[in-house]
Design a protein that fits this description.
64% of the residues lie in helices and 3% in strands. The protein has 283 residues and is mostly helical.
């Protein structure tokens, strides 16, 4: 049995073609470049999520029992494909600012290595479920705690919160598919630890690289901002550690933390910022 519900695919009504401030998040370099680094990972990462879910879903038996999950998977793919396209436009603007996206190549190399080594579809799906948990936790913090993105450029604040809303909506899709296909607890946890290590290393390297190209890597203010961002009163480390580690519980399910209300509130308050795309079946 799965708990995923039908999803809506939305078009975000923002125009990135005119660019945005270099330090768009409260004028602070570190937190700006951290979020920029995350954006750099999304086009390749989201495509891999799509591919892994599609491949694993081929093993779902036909029949009414799985019809709802199949429909939700199609709309999951639609949402992720939209994220991929929007962040590709975002990243193009970052290139104009002189930043270099290395994460896309690191991720692509890792994905290709997995294919060459014959990583089975259920393990690829476990990796996707792990990364979806990471993004869901960050999405929740972005929506729940205004301090995380306080002072952000309005256009990018809209972009990140729209993304957070949809990550919240579909946070259980890969997990439900994994569970429906009888994926084991041991495999789920092993690939979660792998994903945690890879994410931490690549996010750190890309953020540092962004700061280098931004010419603020060695400024004391950069690292004071980093300390506040991660370890301050509302620091990401304190806010995210427990939710992240909940994934290690044997009986874990993403909707044990039901935060749909946060997504619904943002959608209701920002209806002019998006349109609903109906009938999108994939990418």
């Amino acid at each position: 049995m799965n708990t995923s519900s039908p999803l809506l695919v939305r078009k975000l009504l923002v125009d990135l073609s005119h660019g945005f401030p270099r330090h768009w998040l409260a004028g602070k370099a570190f937190r700006t470049q951290f979020f920029n680094a995350l954006s750099m990972s999304f086009p390749v990462g989201e495509q891999d999520f799509i591919d892994s879910v599609r491949e694993a879903a081929l093993a779902l038996p036909d029949g009414a029992e799985h019809a709802q999950l199949q429909a939700t998977i199609r709309d999951f793919i639609g949402q992720e494909a939209t994220h991929r396209r929007v962040h590709a436009l975002y990243n193009a603007e970052l290139e104009k600012q002189g930043l270099v996206n290395h994460w896309q190549y690191w991720a692509a190399d890792l994905i290709e290595m997995g294919r060459k080594r014959g990583v089975p579809p259920i393990s690829r799906l476990a990796v996707t479920a792990a990364f979806e948990h990471y993004t869901a936790v960050l999405a929740d913090l972005t929506l729940r705690y205004p301090q995380v993105m306080q002072g952000a450029d309005p256009m990018l604040l809209t972009l990140w919160r729209w993304h957070a809303v949809e990550e919240t909506e579909h946070k259980a899709v890969a997990f439900d598919l994994y569970r429906t296909l009888d994926g084991s607890y041991k495999t789920r946890v092993r690939w979660f630890m792998f994903a945690m290590l890879r994410f931490t290393v690549m996010a750190t390297k890309q953020t540092v690289n962004n700061l280098w190209h931004d010419r603020v890597l060695f400024k004391p203010s950069t690292w004071l901002d980093a300390a506040s961002f991660f370890f301050g009163r509302h620091g990401l480390v304190w806010l995210s550690t427990r939710p992240l580690l909940n994934y290690l519980k044997r009986d874990f399910h993403p909707w044990q933390h039901d935060n749909r209300e946060l997504a619904e509130q943002w959608l209701a308050a920002n209806a002019a910022q998006y349109s609903i795309v109906r009938g999108l079946k994939g990418a």
